[in-house]
Amino acid sequence: MAALSPSLKWPTTLDYVHDWVLVDIETSGLRPGRDRVLSLALLRLDGHGRQTGEFSTLFNPGCDPGPVQIHGLTPARLAGAPTFEEIAPQVEALLGGGVMVAHNAQFDYDFLAHEFARARSFAPVSSRLCTLALNRLIGPATSDLKLGTLAAYYGVRQERAHDARDDVRVLSGVLRGSLEAADQLGLSLPLLTCPPRQDYRPYVPKTPCAYRNPGRWTVGGPLVQGMKVAVTGDTRVAREDLIVRSVAAGLNMVTSVSGQTSVVVTNDPGAASSKLRRAATEGVPLIDESAYLRLLENVRPGQSKGAALPAPMPRGRAGMPGSATTARNPSGAGAPSPADGVAQLLTGRRVLVLGGTHEEAAAARVRVVDFGASAAVNLSAKVTDVVVLPGGESDRRMARIALLGLRVHDADWLVAPAPSGPVVNESDAAEVLVRGAVIDLPDPDGTAWTVTAAWEQHTACAIDVVAFRLDGHERVAGDEDFIFYNAPEHPDGVVRLATHSPTEQAVTVDLERLPLEVSRVVVAAAIDGRATFSDVGAIEVTATRGIAAAPTARATLDAATTERTMLLAEIYRRGEGWRLRAMGQGYDHGLVALARGYGVDVDE
After folding, report:
1. Are 118 and 125 in contact (CB under 8 A)?
2. The whole model's pTM is what?
3. Given pLDDT bands bounded at 50, 70 and 90, which one contains residue 375?
4. Which residues on adjacent β-strands are paired with residue 527?
5. CA-CA distance, 276 to 361, in Å (whole number)?
């Protein structure tokens, strides 16, 4: 295990010298666009950690402040505060030109972006650093990665949790300690580019439809509750009123057209809109507004989603759509499997494999897990051992590994490893899963589960993490059940995608709010371009109950050589509970083919 210096100081490494703008907010809820910022604190530091500016204020959001018991911001306290629009120029001046820093930075950034959008502007943030993501790379010996826990670890006094001014002060100390710890490990900072966005819109709630989709509308027949209805073009009745009336009648109003759409409402069937083109391709019937309004007056009863689910379709060995490449077991390449009696020789250890071909490295990682250890994809403070395969001697991390005094082994060590000394990561009790392994998930107790995927820091190609909400037939109910970079949140907010760094993305699922007809959520990764997973290496997947909690389970997954997409994990219903499966199934085809295999209507 890497021994980090306890006397942390502000680092002077050139790559770590930036103008930092530390941000902390308190909000009326958890959904940007729907909920509002109640308080904001900013602290600006130069590249040497010296304070160059600060600002803090309360806001009058014009709405219910939400969980007062957490943040203490009552309507009376907020009544005389300014609106965000009134002080937006001051916030913009302090944010501009610096790297935004926050703990779980995606959350703060999205809230600020929506507030700036309401003020008819955009967040002046060109890049951001998430201290939560940075500490996941560092791997400190802490029980979790919450701000208060990290503050204690880095020697920072926390006085008032959930107070924006105190939290941003604490954040400055956590940043200082995190930068020094990262510098000792030789990590690259996970700075995430944030191109200016003006496409944020206020949140418009989608009322969940209580009825199952009965299929296509028949020309001349009635509308049935649960039918998926799309509207395109100008309408005589205000679009919002049309939607409200339709939802009240039990119809499912959708924003896109797919093979699942029941009918499209249009007053101009000859228009060249994308919805009409898709309707023609899929054979979805059209109806004009007047006829639709008449049918709205007598919508037939539908089948409640609370009714019994249909029996699921039989699943294949991998249970996935499309044609998978033949599964290859890297540990089968001439290497004997560990005997049952020694299978846990490396329990509690974390092993980093360097060098070798992709298949050699994958085989070594399988051996690591077979012996009870977890396989790392990056050098962190929790790495206890390093296995160097041919070519690994020239890895840029070897000099740092020598300075940290880590144990270094050759490939023969994995035949029968003999650990010297009880080096155990007591702060990381995550269950290590092999490919295909399943665990029962504990009751979330009101907390959403998060599946995080991470890969080697210096990966050259771009990787996209996506999620699919599937029914009992392994199909999406509609295109909105495909969560990806251009649609990172389902309209009901139950499944969300977050990008924490260039090499880490996460899918959060609120299992207690997941509709009954959704039987599983599949998380996958896809490579953008012609690269394959042989160029990427392993993907590390962790499952946590909460954003900053200690991992419940961890898996390090290697596709074979030619795959461009890989199914990482699935969370699925099992009786009254939920299970998590580590998947690691690779496919040669790209993301479009994968999505279509699940029934998503995707444009090339």
Report:
1. no
2. 0.81
3. very high
4. 463
5. 50
